[in-house]
Amino acid sequence: MPAPRPALVPAPTQLTHRPGHFTLDQDTSLRITPGAEPAATLLRTLIAPATGLPLTAAPDGPFVLAHDPGLSGLGTEGYGLTISPDAVLLRAAHPTGLLRGIQTIRQLLPAQALANGPRPGVPWQLPCVEITDVPRRAWRGFMLDVARHFQPVPFLRRYVDLLALHKLNVLHLHLTDDQGWRLPVADYPLLTEVGGRRAQSMVGPAGSDAFDGTPHQGAYTGRELRDLVTYAAARGVTIVPEVEMPGHTRAALAAYPELGTVPGRRLDVWTRWGVCDTVLGVHEPVLDFCRTVLDTVLDVFPSPHVHVGGDECPTTEWATSPAARQRIETEGLSGPGELRGWFLGRMGTHLLERGRIPTAWAETGEGLPPEFTVMTWRDPEHTRIALKRGHNVVSSHHSATYLDYAQSTSPAEPPAQPGTVVDLRAVHDHEPPADPTTEGGELLGVQAQLWTEFAPTAGHVDYLAFPRLAALADRAWHGASPWPQARARLIAHGARLAALGVRHGPFDPYVPVPHRFGEEPR
């Protein structure tokens, strides 16, 4: 009886099954063309723990990794994969395409190949297939909020690997907010010493009067972040850093009160959820501070895009600040409402002068220079409006990509952001509105967000992120497919998630998962 056909996530662009299989064993060797060495290293690194296979290099090896720049139709991330009973050929025009093909090979192997320890007695067979695979979206991202609840570097590396397996190519780190500052800045050590610790955390949604009474703290070192960037790059994942300004800055103001709008005021790191009305001032030392912080970001993160937050910035403090009123007059602004755009424009210019692309949260892009890439999140139509204004856009629509929302109305669901349910199908069905024949900017892609007010542990993150993140990856790479087929592939993909120790949420919103919510990854 033939083995069942593998359910790949994301589905390839073109896939043809052939009879037979190719067996990997201790004698299997790799033929590696110039430029394919990183892919060979990654393949060995990822499958050695479970299989123990050395996959040594040999000039006549039957398993060929070929970097061929002449395959221009595959673009940067596309690849071609041919598996016959006697040989494997993985080809790509760019080294990144080979990395994507390696992840497909991992999924074609038995699920046990993804385990982090030996799995003896398993026949390591690849089914014979012909695959040509090119992504439809250039930006396929996942934002993780490590400001509300800090997660250590080993956890971040694990998520880089999970993203790479699903051919997601951006890990967007939300590094600072009202409730915590996680990025070290040499000129401002109190940002992490003071801003990296809060006295306690709110229990429940914004507006709750309940607190856990437990201090929460954490910050990264520059070396940790640089090593994370290197680790991610070897897997074809870009780390996009985010430092919030001019709002969502209470942690910075707790460390350096002089950056605020009220002279002499002392603040603590915010222990509540929601939007805090304390914001940065607009006097010159504040601008110098932000430039210094951004220069640190540029030194650590080579990402073309640098995220400066920018949304949910109350103007009440600016309206009563003499320094802000003076700035409004000096710059010829109509009022406090224009200070946000003015502030972000100054920071955007700083980034552009250094060869980076300023990026911000936005509803429609109003008030932002067109050079900003924007992440539209409130309404699908805002994506179209921002494109018409000339912005490049990453669609982050909250009712389809915010994974801190509940997955169902089932009473078994854990606490979540109130007001919206984002189930597996809603994520997979999400298609940003855009008409490439009329829009001025470019729709770069899509991104899922996991704000962590309700995800304090690794187990919580796993439960909320998966399988919904797999559904987003499938849609972003492959495009539309009939939901029954997509759902069947996602359910079959659960065996791989189990092998990786991912304690995921439900595939069916009303059928409980076989593990307890919040259980830590294995």
Topology, element by element:
Blueprint lengths: L13 E10 L6 E3 L4 H15 L11 E5 L11 E5 L4 E5 L2 H14 L16 E9 L5 E7 L7 H13 L4 E5 L1 E2 L2 E2 L8 H4 L3 E2 L3 E2 L6 E2 L4 E2 L4 H12 L4 E8 L4 H6 L28 H17 L4 E5 L6 H5 L1 H10 L7 H15 L3 E6 L10 E4 L3 H9 L4 E3 L2 H4 L3 E2 L10 E5 L2 H6 L13 E8 L7 H8 L2 H11 L4 H17 L23
Parallel strand pairs: 2-3, 3-5, 7-8, 7-22, 8-15, 15-16, 16-17, 17-18, 18-19, 19-22, 20-21
Antiparallel strand pairs: 1-6, 4-5, 4-6, 9-10, 11-14, 12-13
Helix pairs in contact: 1-2, 3-5, 7-10
Features:
single chain, 522 residues, alpha/beta, Chitobiase, domain 2, TIM Barrel, 2 domains, 8-stranded parallel β-barrel, 6-stranded mixed sheet, 16 helices, 22 strands, globular
Description:
The chain is an alpha/beta fold and 522 residues long. The protein folds into two domains: 14-133, Chitobiase/beta-hexosaminidase domain 2-like (Chitobiase, domain 2); 139-481, TIM Barrel. The protein contains 16 helices and 22 strands. The protein has helices at 37-51, 95-108, 153-165, 190-193, 222-233, 250-255, 284-300, 316-320, 322-331, 339-353, 380-388, 398-401, 424-429, 458-465, 468-478, 483-499; strands at 14-23, 30-32, 63-67, 79-83, 88-92, 125-133, 139-145, 170-174, 176-177, 180-181, 197-198, 202-203, 210-211, 216-217, 238-245, 305-309, 357-362, 373-376, 393-395, 405-406, 417-421, 443-450. The strands form six sheets. Strands 7-8-15-16-17-18-19-22 form an eight-stranded parallel β-barrel, surrounded by seven helices. A hairpin with a 6-residue loop joins β12 (202-203) and β13 (210-211). It starts with 13 loop residues before the first strand and ends in a 23-residue tail after the last helix. The relative contact order is 0.11. The model has no long low-confidence stretch (mean pLDDT 95).
